[in-house]
Write a structure and sequence with these properties.
Blueprint lengths: L14 E5 L6 H10 L7 E3 L18 H13 L2 E6 L2 H9 L4 E4 L1 H4 L2 H10 L6 E5 L6 H13 L5 E5 L16 H10 L5 E3 L1 H5 L5 H10 L4 E5 L17 H10 L10 H41 L7 H17 L4 H24 L5
Parallel strand pairs: 1-2, 1-8, 2-3, 3-4, 4-5, 5-6, 6-7, 7-8
Helix pairs in contact: 1-2, 3-5, 5-6, 11-13, 12-13
């Protein structure tokens, strides 16, 4: 296996990048930097330009924020980081001696944008991190890394921030851990950082996602931290105070590779995580099926049609057993599963039929 790029070795503990989602004022930046614990946080981050989904939202303070970032570096000794969304951002960040530049998920999805940024950064010795694209496309993510490598950029890392999904889940961006793990298998030399703030979209899940990342031997975390999270100008719900950040970092268990069975446990964790994600998808699919069954129940009620339709049930059962057999599932298992789902659907439709008749 290829060794990790050497830039990651300058950090004694797992790398932690922290700071506000957006730079709002010089005072805000300096207060956050002062409150961050430098034993646990090595890099101070802040969004200077903020690509937003809709117009007429706060889209960052712009280049003036680079002065504030530099002041944080000068006064507190942090390395500093910000997102660059185009070639002009890249050039400005280099002018202000920003140590770490990251390409955001909306930029990674566009090869033309990544190419322009890569050319603007050609031969730089700065650390350049690439967030996964918004859509679950491993090749796009790897392709962005390769574009940087083609421009003789040596210090590169990846950031796993989860993937957008149309369906609402417990996450703002579904982690789909397997995609990140596949990336790590294909490019083991590229350090992997987890961004639990954007995966969760809330404060409550940050510890669990961070611990999961360390269970998979990620190289660090990027967590948004604000001096007054509830009043933040962007992504308030997912930001935490520097003090809460320290509590999380102190509680995390760091996993290290060695010869005492860690590889077995690492692989086991990966497979178990695949099961968890698959189970979640199954439950979401069943929930969607029940919603459709309830719509059918409303239609049957409106037209005074009986809930149970024997011919339709026979067709469902036969189709499911046949398809299950094709997929390697036993007839007994499929029959039990389909019966349970059908009974739940019948119960939902009965509740619709009876709701106006109940006292």
């Amino acid at each position: 296996m290829k060794a990790k790029q050497s830039w990651i070795n300058q950090f004694d503990k797992p790398l932690t990048i922290a700071g506000p989602c957006s730079a709002e004022s010089e005072k805000q930046m300096l207060e956050i930097a002062e409150r961050l614990n430098k034993e646990y946080v090595q890099i101070f981050r802040a969004g200077i330009w903020k690509p937003r989904t809709k117009p007429n939202c706060f889209e960052g303070v712009g280049a003036i924020g680079l002065n504030w970032l530099k002041k944080v570096k000068d006064e507190f000794g942090f390395k500093i980081a910000t997102e660059i969304a185009n070639a002009n951002h890249a050039k400005l960040a280099l002018e202000y001696d920003v140590d770490v530049l990251w390409i955001g998920a909306r930029s990674t999805v566009n090869p033309f944008t990544v190419q322009e940024i890569a050319e603007a950064l050609r031969d730089t010795d700065k650390i350049v991190l690439v967030k996964n694209p918004v859509n679950p496309d491993l090749d796009l993510w790897i392709g962005a890394i390769e574009r940087l490598q083609a421009q003789n950029i040596q210090n590169i890392g990846a950031i796993h921030r989860g993937f957008s999904t149309y369906k609402k889940t417990q996450y703002r961006n579904n982690p789909q851990w397997q995609i990140a793990l596949d990336f790590m298998d294909k490019m083991p030399e590229i350090p992997m950082i987890c961004d639990p703030s954007h995966i969760c979209g809330n404060r409550e899940g940050l510890f669990d996602v961070s611990q999961q990342a360390y269970n998979f031997e990620y190289d660090g975390l990027m967590i948004e931290s604000h001096n007054n999270p509830d009043e933040a100008w962007s992504d308030a719900s997912q930001q935490i105070t520097p003090e809460r950040l320290l509590e999380i970092l102190q509680k995390l268990e760091i996993r290290k590779s060695d010869d005492d069975g860690t590889f077995y446990h690492s692989q086991l964790n990966r497979l178990r995580n695949e099961i968890d994600e698959t189970d979640q998808a199954i439950l979401e699919a069943i929930s969607q099926r029940m919603n459709i069954a309830m719509q059918i129940g409303e239609l049957k009620k409106e037209h005074n049609v009986a809930v149970f339709q024997p011919e339709r049930w026979k067709q469902i059962r036969e189709n499911s057993v046949r398809e299950g057999s094709r997929l390697g599932l036993s007839e007994e298992f499929v029959d039990k599963m389909v019966k349970a789902i059908h009974q739940e659907s019948i119960a939902h439709q009965n509740s619709i039929m009876n709701k106006e008749n109940s006292l």
